[in-house]
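Chain A, query sequence.
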Amino acid sequence: MSMLSVRAVLLCACALLLHHANGELRGRCPSEEASCPPRASPCSADDECGEKICCNTSCGRACVDPLYTGCENVKLSTERISRALAAENSRGGRGMLPSLRTPRCRTTDGEFEEIQCDNEIVSSCWCVDAAGFEVPGTRAPAAGLVNCTRAAPCAAHTCRMLCPLGFELDSRGCPLCKCRDPCTSVTCPGQLSCQLEEAPCLRPPCPPVPTCKRGRSLQNICPVGEPLLISETSRPFLCGTDPGKPNCPPLYRCLVESGNDYGVCCPASLELQKAGTCPAPTTTDLECGTPCAHDLECPSMQKCCDGGECGRHCTLPHNVTMCTQQKMLAELLVVSEKEGKGYVPQCKDDGSFESKQCSRNGLVCW
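Chain A, predicted structure.
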């Protein structure tokens, strides 16, 4: 290889590294002027909007949630999961696991590049459709060998299964009689499991996004967040929708599954904030927690905080203790109690329990 060729390769590699180093996705404004969002903050630039962006709306320029392309949605989710897995492996002293395949998005418009490859050094490559799914018969051992205009012939496919996302492909890139599941290749941290989520995107088609979520049980039956627990216990506060059964406190609603007489109180608003303040983002401690979008996706006392390079993830907040957390929950519960009834924990200035606790009316102390 000539010195000129070597120099060209090095320049391309440097440009690629710079692109990835500065490739934080900010999202885009909706293609059509959005209606006036509720509680929208007026703005003149993105810097005034935090995690939102400044866009034209029917009520002037305001901070709105950014939209990403289908490729960018999948890329962001995959990168969050990869960071959480890397942190979990680091804490457990385990070796590095193979990284999840991250789709390549065009720098011009954010859509899927026509040719995608896996993450291995000796990689397979293939063509994809507009939704990012592999086109049958296009897989090859290198990107230079992929021909997206002339797919290789596959055996006749007579499977009669109805698969919304198409069929799984074999090692040669030909269809199997098995529905495609993007979660098959995703490993989630901890006790989380992969679930497909429909996510809005800048331009259709919007592919479903593999996301790590908790499995369903009585403790996590709520669509988002955790059920309200009885103070000082791990038992959920039971409620009912029939007359005479306990009602949920404000900011919660009763969710009763079919066939059950009682249910649990689930957070009624994604805006519900847990106690405490988020720590400042850091670049030195890259132990990323579970990826999240809001407080209700985080377990126990953890909040959803901005972690710098980690993105938004669950972490223990500042200025919160077991006492302050129980006090916040108890204050929600006693709203529906009669005057003076019930018990709200008393906390010291440092957040610990007062050594002497009393009922709200002060008649009983211990």
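Residues 1-23 have pLDDT under 50 and may be disordered. The CA atoms of residues 107 and 161 lie 37 Å apart.
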